[in-house]
Design a protein that fits this description.
By secondary structure, this protein is mostly helical. Helices cover 51% and strands 3% of the residues. It contains 15 helices and four strands. The protein is globular, with a radius of gyration of 19 Å.
Length: 318
């Protein structure tokens, strides 16, 4: 996916592997679904999916407990304690041994991405932590810029599946939900990427995502529609009442306008409006990522990609 490469200025204050300071200029390389085959062969992507599969399996092994309260099942704390104990081992399966020093910090973002064990809740701040986890892996060279399609439609999509299972199994509370005035109780990024995926679709228009038949027939292929299906499974009553923001968005005439509007909303309403240090720790991979992107002006497009660039139109997920 590179037309050229640029080397960022060396930073004498840190020992950063040279390979992680290469930046490549993104260009459109996905034209049809078969073009995605190369990303299916990425070992790093497969290892990340295997990591998420492990988290999924632990949910089956730690069922909800009987308790008086309907929400916030305390078995989640047992599940989280297992992740807290095993996070570094899990991340070590993804990171090569030459980069083992990065594992403890990168593992923190993984642990932050699955919800809060005290409140037993989950929200867009935890979603943002998973994006930071992926960005750290990009920075240290585990993932590459030309993995970005698979990062979203394979890895991030699998992450969403596991988070939905956590939310349903342990009846997690939405963290920071704005209720009917918010876009969604739990997620935001998949609406940005999902709306981009549908730009120029031959027959699916924004008005169709409030059509139950259209959603049921197409949700497996489109991230946005999968989000809508999950909302309808979790909430009762008319869609216009429990998801008023999305109902209003369905009247927008094109997916490109939906995408642009969601990016503006994300900038205004999500954790990126906070001081970075209040959301992210200031350790080596993340701070190095920030300095390198400032120096090169060619950032790895995971966190900044949905905010600054049109997302690639990838067709159905991998």
């Amino acid at each position: 996916m590179a037309e050229g490469e640029r080397q960022s200025p060396p930073d004498s204050s840190e020992d950063i592997p040279p390979a992680t300071q290469n930046f490549i200029i993104p260009k459109k390389e996905i034209h049809t679904v078969p073009d995605m085959g190369k990303w299916k062969r990425s070992q790093a992507i497969e290892k990340l999916v295997a990591l998420l599969n492990t988290l999924d399996r632990w949910i089956d092994e730690i069922p909800p407990v009987d308790q008086p309260s309907r929400f916030g099942n305390k078995a989640y704390r047992t599940w989280y304690a297992k992740l807290d104990e095993e996070a570094e081992n899990l991340v070590a399966t993804v990171v090569p041994t030459c980069l083992a020093a990065a594992v403890p910090e990168v593992a923190v973002y993984l642990k932050e991405s699955v919800g809060n064990s005290t409140r037993i809740d989950y929200g867009t701040g935890h979603e943002a932590a998973f994006a930071a986890f992926l960005c750290c892996l990009c920075k240290i060279g585990v993932l590459r810029v030309d993995d970005q399609i698979a990062i979203v439609f394979k890895v991030f999509n699998r992450y969403l599946e596991v988070m939905r299972k956590l939310q349903k199994t342990y009846r997690m509370e939405p963290a920071g939900s704005q209720g009917v005035w918010g876009l969604d109780d739990f997620q935001f990024l998949p609406f940005i990427w999902g709306s981009s995926q549908l730009i120029d679709h031959p027959f699916l228009e924004p008005r169709h995502f409030v059509d139950e038949k259209a959603v049921n027939e197409n949700h497996k292929d489109y991230m946005f529609l999968e989000c809508i299906l999950f909302i309808t499974e979790m909430k009762t009553g008319p869609f216009a009442e429990h998801s008023n923001q999305l109902w209003n968005i369905s009247a927008v005439p094109s997916w490109s306008k939906v995408n642009q509007g969601l990016i503006r909303m994300y900038k205004a309403e999500t954790p990126w409006t906070m001081e970075p240090r209040s959301l992210f720790l200031t350790g080596n991979p993340w701070s190095s990522f920030q300095r390198a992107t400032e120096a090169s002006s060619l950032p790895l497009r995971v966190l900044t990609w949905p905010l600054d660039l049109p997302c690639p139109r990838a067709g159905p997920p991998l």
